[in-house]
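Worked example 2:
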Amino acid sequence: MSNEFEALHRQWQKDKGYFENESPDINEVFLSIRKKKTWSIHFHYGNILVLLIVLIGITAFFYFVAPVEHLLSRIGVGLMIGGLIVRISIEIISVYKSKAIDMMDSALQATNDTITFYNFRKTIHGPITIAILILYTIGFYMITPEFSLYFTIWKMILIDVSYVVAAIIPFVSIRKNIKKEIKILQEIIALKEKITERNP
């Protein structure tokens, strides 16, 4: 990733003398984007790892510990596991799309490609992620009727409430990282504006 950004920097310097009258703030924007782009790739890999662990844990739980028998419960488990698989697939696609950006293109083209990528990520963070979370939650609560046959009402209340509380912690963390990704998009758009100003 470092080499890609060095290539972009060299290309940017070459493109029609963008840096003939270079100002420090342009370099600062460029270096900031370079660091945050590296962070973003690590963020995708981190998401894949965490989601895979959760997927393996849930699959093992419902296969070895609590194999559900009712159709409603099985559909619920399917929604939970399916949602995780879709989200993992999205993160893998994000890594592929990010690496597919050719930093050897013109500075403007490479910047446009990067903006397209972050707009894709913005869409993922919006309706798609919300839909996955809703389906996952529906799936979780679809298992409740069958679990209620084996647990007391108070234990079921504890399980259901615990899900809500446990979901808040990763939600806050994910929300923070999402905001960071959106900020990267805004900085790259600012970079594009600087390039455009120097090449009307």
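Residues 115 and 186 are 9 Å apart (CA to CA). DSSP finds six helices and no strands in the chain.
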